[in-house]
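Researcher: I'm preparing a figure for a lab meeting and need a structural model of a single chain. I don't have an experimental structure, so a prediction will have to do for now. The sequence is pasted below. Please return the structure as tokens so I can convert it later.
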Amino acid sequence: MGVGDRFAHQAKAQLQACIQAANAGVEVAPVWNKSNREHAIIGSEPSSTRTAADAAVDALNWTKPYFCDADHIGLATLDRFLPACDFYTIDVADFIGKPADASSVDAFIHRHPELQGRIEMEGIAEPLALTRDFVRQVANKFLAAYAIGLVLAGRMVDKLGTRIGYALVMGLWSLAAMSHALVRSAFGFGIARFFLGLGEAGNFPAAIKTTAEWFPQSERSLATGIFNSGANVGAILAPALIPWITLRFGWRAAFLATGIFSMTWIIWWLTHYRKPSEYPKISRAELDLIHRDPPQPVVNLPWKKLLVYRQTWAFSLAKFLTDPIWWFYLYWLPKFFDARFHLGLSHLGLPLIIVYNASAVGSIGGGWLPAVMHRTGMSMVKARLTTMLMFACIVTPIFFASRTHSEWVAVGLLSLAAAAHQGWSANLFTTASDMFPKSAVGAVVGIGGMAGSVGGVLFSLSAGWVLQITHSYASLFGIAASAYLIALLVLRTLAPGLKRIEVAT
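Model: Understood. Here is the structure written out token by token.
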């Protein structure tokens, strides 16, 4: 039993407790421990712990085993503990979150071949060899397809319309999800992930174009915030449902279930969705409300023409600067909590649930706020930009997340930043329909989404490099704190007043 004696004055009393335990039939071997940090704070030497323990043992005639432990030490502090201690506890906290050098990794892999296994999966002809290269290849296939799909899907939705276009991209996603259940090799998984990325990429261009069709300018950010929060709700529900399906029906059933669920949605979409002008149950008053904004020309703008407009670059650069921050939160938060607060997988659930729930609130609240400002007499453009400025400022306290010693303060800062990002995102998405005619919104969102994906890949790669060099998240949170203000400056410089593009009809 470890017994701490901070000032080397309690050893006798502690040993008397061990004697009482022995008299009650509980054999205890006391281990007096004191960390290097405690010695440094108090100004004592490790020999004082040994001296106090030996004196207590002699005074009470203790004849059973007892020990002294060098607690929380490293190679730099080992020598002074050697004469006084029986065993030594390495302070692994000094190494958590610090990437090992390549030679150490290679040595570890060579020393532990039992960890380099192959996973046998029912129905897979060849076992899957889980190597870093394999995981990297699968991830790259998905991200590459996602970036390509954003551009292609945006143009397709503009050409075919939201009803057919949205159904096609979701159909591709559903088939790709279910196709995972048919694969027989690692190569098959890679192909399935590629097409999953192609299909998933079409969601946002189609959804933004749908809100442009059904909502007036003053209400689009709220509609965008509501549908955008659905992704966060899904991220909370999926970990509860998918493991349950997998444990009871197998891993193939999990892929089939998600695909079947989305197929059900597609049937509903094709059955019920129509443009406002084609919807049979809409009233004249509702139609007038939707079309109360000035009429927009229906024009065909190819990509090369869209790239000429400063507004396209304003939207795309804002996405390039801020989308990576959200991906940073998604992929690096578990590692941050583990490195900073030693939260393993078993303790990560509640902090992450709090952060993602806060982001859902921010998404809806951020979409609602411009409409409230507009009702007070503020122009819609000013309300939109004011809201984005507010959220860009709310993000800035995230700079201190890596400096706090309280995990709940960090959770609070990250929740605030995640909510602000989603509020920002709901309004940034809506600027595309503010500046472009409805016939071009899908393509513009696709171009901007691709820019955000490229930025996300670059930031993810650089984040690993920064952590390896600095062993600190401080600079990464510094970037996260400032990215939104820089993006807003770019947006306002390239597209002052979110001016709508002028096209020849």
